[in-house]
């Protein structure tokens, strides 16, 4: 059995620098008068950089995109964008009216806004198929 002497930190650093120079020749090697040091980044700076990369508009209150009557009893269907636990969702929901006549949310569907392109594609396909089968009125009436 042969024994290998464990490399010290200086040998590991030299090997790392050699690998780095081979991969990135544009980076000048370290010299005593010019030290390459990584930029000092605090955890706060790193979090701010990541947060800025994924920043999006906040929704302070639900934003109604579309609305139409659902029944003669005053129910409505609304498509809206809303935020829940710092995530944006699209809702397609029935609203009923309370004693004061104010719309209140009822049954419906909600999903993350990342699903909107898939929903758009599905609704477009359903609309085309309904027209093809003669299920959709051509005058646009509800």
H/E series, N to C? HHEEEEH
- Poorly predicted runs: none
User: Helix/strand-derived class?
Assistant: alpha+beta
Measured by DSSP, the beta-strand proportion falls in 25-35%
CATH homologous superfamily placement of the domain at 63-132: Transcriptional Coactivator Pc4, Chain A
Reported by name, the CATH topology of the domain at 63-132 is: Transcriptional Co-activator pc4, Chain A
* Main sheet specs: 4 strands, antiparallel
What do the pLDDT scores average to? 77
Summed up, what is this model?
The chain has a domain at 63-132: Roll (Transcriptional Co-activator pc4, Chain A). The chain is 30% helix and 26% strand.
Q: How would you portray this structure in words?
A:
By secondary structure, this protein is α+β, with helices and mostly antiparallel strands. It has a domain at 63-132: Transcriptional Coactivator Pc4, Chain A (Transcriptional Co-activator pc4, Chain A, Roll), CATH 2.30.31.10. 30% of the residues lie in helices and 26% in strands. It is built from three helices and four strands; from the N terminus they run H-H-E-E-E-E-H. It has helices at residues 9-23, 43-53, 116-132, and strands at 63-69, 76-84, 87-97, 103-112. A hairpin with a 2-residue loop joins strand 2 and strand 3 (87-97). The longest helix is centred in the C-terminal third of the chain and has 17 residues, at 116-132. 1% of the residues are buried.
Task: For the structure shown, list the relevant keywords.
4-stranded antiparallel β-sheet; 142 residues; Transcriptional Co-activator pc4, Chain A; 3 helices; alpha+beta; 4 strands; single chain
